[in-house]
Every structure is written in C-alpha cells, then in structure tokens.
Amino acid sequence: MDQNGKEEKQKLPNCSVITAVNDDSLKDIFHQIRTSKTTAVINYGASWCHVCSQILPAFCDLSAKFPKLSFVYADIDECPETTQHVRYTPTFHFYRDGERVDEMFGAGEERLHDRLWLHS
To answer: What are the catalytic residues?
Structure first.
C-alpha cells in the first residue's frame, strides 16, 4: 500500500504493455486501435483477482515475444464505464484491422501464447 492507503499497482520491468489508467484513457486506446488498424490484445483484469495477478507477468513477457501486437492492460475497477461488458477476469479481447475478432476467458500462459500466435 502507498502512503495514502491505496493499493499500489504491480510494477513490471521491461514491459511494453500499455496500461489504461481510466475510462478516458481506454477510450483513447480503442480509438487508436480502430484508426490505426493495429493488431492488439486487451487484458481486462482486476487488482483483487488472484488469477489476473498471476497471468500479468506472463502477459508482459509475451509482449516482448510478439512485438507486432499491441498489448493493453485495463483494470475493470479503474475503467468501470468502458469495461461494464466484461463479466469475467481475466478476459482477453483480440483486435485486427480495428475490429474485435476473438476473446479468451481465464488464464493459462500456454493458451494465451497460442492465441497470440494465432493473431500475430
């Protein structure tokens, strides 16, 4: 916890994951994905979710293995308006040419790797 009593975010070194810090930030990321037609994956998680905390370092490591993909992390509690459609954490959404083309529920580094490979 920080000095204000808020839980600190997990810091991950050498990570190229973009973090949505609030709803406006996530809206900007969606806009960037749509307009640039970037191939991207968004990891929807929560700070209180044990499984999310376990998969986040692997998600970060995978961002280095798949440099052509954009990796985004959005905490559902930090982005409540734009993540209200997310029912399970972690949830992964995959985008290609500005459109969502796939989703994956739950963790599993090997499953996630295979799905990333499919979309890279």
So the answer is: 49, 52
